[in-house]
Specification:
This protein is mostly helical. Among the domains are: 33 residues; 62 residues, no CATH class. It is 53% helix and 4% strand. The protein is built from six helices and two strands, in the order ααααββαα.
Length: 169
């Protein structure tokens, strides 16, 4: 192969290469990709908005009490039991100087609660001293029921029974 032919193949010769880039084709392809991305993004946005609106339409309206709380800006606290984080280094609580106490250690809180309950079940004390209601240890209560039996109760008339008694006369 002569030097002239070699230069033409590698593009270093005086003549331009036979394989020029099609600039119009590249620009049209790029424009098509950009338009496809815009259309796909718009479709995802409108799909997300439509699904969100449909979900909101299916939700039951808040109760009047809840709506009033929302309108007044009252913070909504979930009902008990509230979940609590474990005080580990991974949660960041210990790093921030928050010690494991009743608010952050549910296991310890449960242990304390069960100990208090056991104490109440095993000891004498007042439930309502003003009305003379006391508690006794559960073992003693079971012994008393075995000895004395359960108290007799009289059946209370129900609405159905009260109507039938009046119609017999």
């Amino acid at each position: 192969m002569s030097e002239h032919e070699h230069n033409q193949v590698n593009g270093s010769g005086d003549k331009p290469l036979d394989r020029d880039l099609n600039l119009k084709g590249i620009l049209l392809f790029s424009l098509g990709i950009v338009l496809l991305m815009v259309v796909a993004t718009a479709a995802m946005y409108f799909f997300t908005v439509e699904v969100s609106d449909r979900d909101k339409a299916r939700d039951a309206p808040p109760t009047p009490i809840l709506q009033e709380a929302i309108d007044e800006g009252v913070p909504l606290v979930p009902p008990d039991p509230r979940l609590q984080p474990q005080p580990r280094a991974t949660t960041g609580l210990v790093d921030r100087g928050i010690s494991p106490d009743r608010e952050t250690a549910p296991n310890e809180e449960m242990r304390r609660f069960l100990a208090e309950e056991e104490q109440d079940l095993a000891s004498y004390g007042w439930v309502d001293e003003g009305n003379g209601i006391a508690r006794i240890p559960i073992d003693r209560a079971m012994e008393l029921i075995v000895e004395q039996g359960l108290p007799e109760t009289t059946p209370q008339p129900t609405a159905d029974n009260a109507g039938e008694e009046g119609s017999d006369g």
